[in-house]
Amino acid sequence: MSRRVVITGLGAVTPLGTGVDKFWKGIRENKLGISFIDAFDTERTGVKIAGVVRDFNEEDYFDVPGCFDKKEARRMDRFTKYAVVAAHEALADAGTDLSDLDPYRVGVLVGSGIGGIDLTLSEYGKYLEKGPSRISAFYIPMMISNMAAGTIAMKTGFRGANFDITTACATGTHSIGEAFRKIKDGYLDAALAGGTESTNVEFTYAGFSNMKALTKSDDLERASIPFDKERNGFVLGEGSGVIVLEEYEHAKARGAKIYAEVAGYGATCDAYHMTSPMPSGEAAGMGMSLAIKEAGLTPADIDYINAHGTSTGLNDKYETAAIKQAFGEYADKVKINSTKSMIGHLLGAAGAVEAVVCAKSVQEGFIHRTLGYKVPDEECDLDYCVSGNIEQEVNAALSNSLGFGGHNATLCFKKIK
């Protein structure tokens, strides 16, 4: 059995705003969602800039059916709250609670790269100060990274496949890809899929900083600069992206608004290094090729790539090599951008939020510019959309995610026809 899969709902919590309308408006207007860190003293880590969610007030959701009340909020870590709100928005946007479907055929695949790191630190502080008896009985179920998916299921009643994929920076894209496959192959009829992350604690910044992954720039406009020769590390971000995936005939029968079709998915591994991508780009390129092939397309059919584009020295260079591997003579013809230039790197949520961008790009025929770029790099010599936004029909787009450990994931989106 092979069935078509479409996107009918979008939800997002991002550094550019909570809600897809705010987020997309910021994208279209080339707004910068990164800002100076004020949650802690930045002197010790030297990391001054982040992609922080600024407008998320949990009290706003206490009276919203399907979200959480005050008591429930005390028993949820922030990464779970982000995911619940994004999932609620996605279902509302889809215009259905999917109650016409067998609940065992509706899944929730929402992952997190890290889970409840802030809660772990606060509980560990209590442990050191007052001993093990003072650790909260809710610590474990609040902290574990699968709890976002589990909580969404409790809120929606969806009883199908439910799990948390954790593949670092590729988490959100793998989650959507695996949900796509389950619907395509007949195991599910619909799913909520995406990723979520909350990282705004000094401990997280210190870990990434000590491995030389983060920029220590104090210039907001030159901190996250993918493919620029002066790039020197990524900007850590947080948030959540969740989308509604449906089997096409079901969506069509109910008259659903369809953003795009998810038509292909490629998943490979570099099998090379803990943090560095494969220099040749071979495995990441194969992931793109697999996604394109499954979609029934050729490289010449792809109009746009939402790149992983982290603003690190190795990622951007080796992703460029991967695109050349996959596209050959068409590599310099495809439009490429990086949403991370505006919001930073949302880790486990990155691919999911970037899938929202791709769905909107296909729907509206719009490709945003890569912000902050000034200095060309001879090793990054493709079209990164640095001059401005592009208004053109987007019939097919790819979204790349390349995670620590060599985890590569690519999704292919098509305009519905």
Describe this structure in words.
- With 417 residues, the chain is an alpha/beta fold.
- It has 2 domains: 5-253, Thiolase/Chalcone synthase (Peroxisomal Thiolase, Chain A, domain 1, 3-Layer(aba) Sandwich); 265-414, 3-Layer(aba) Sandwich (Peroxisomal Thiolase, Chain A, domain 1), CATH 3.40.47.
- It is built from 13 helices and 15 strands.
- The strands form 3 sheets. Strands 1, 2, 5, 6, 7, 8, 9, 10, 11, 14 and 15 form an 11-stranded mixed sheet that branches. Strands 3-4 form a two-stranded antiparallel ribbon. A two-stranded antiparallel ribbon has the order 12-13.
- A hairpin with a 3-residue loop joins β14 and β15 (407-414).
- The chain is globular and about 65 Å long.
**Could you please say which CATH topology of the largest domain applies here?**
Peroxisomal Thiolase, Chain A, domain 1
Examine the secondary-structure arrangement and name the CATH architecture of the largest domain.
3-Layer(aba) Sandwich
Structural class: alpha/beta
What is the CATH top level name of the largest domain?
Alpha Beta
User: How far apart, in Å, are the first and last alpha carbons?
Assistant: 20 Å
Helix fraction by DSSP (H/I, runs of at least 4): 25-40%
What order do the SSEs take from the amino end to the carboxyl end, as H and E?
EEHEEHHEHHHEHEHEHEHEHEHHEEEE
Biggest β-sheet strands, sense, barrel: 11 strands, mixed
Count of helical stretches? 13
Number of individual domains? 2
* Gross morphology: globular
The beta-strand count equals 15
Mean pLDDT across every amino acid position: 97
Name of the CATH superfamily of the largest domain: Thiolase/Chalcone synthase
Which residues sit in consecutive blocks of at least 5 with pLDDT less than 50?
Answer: none
Strand content: 15-25%
Return Rg in Å.
Answer: 20 Å
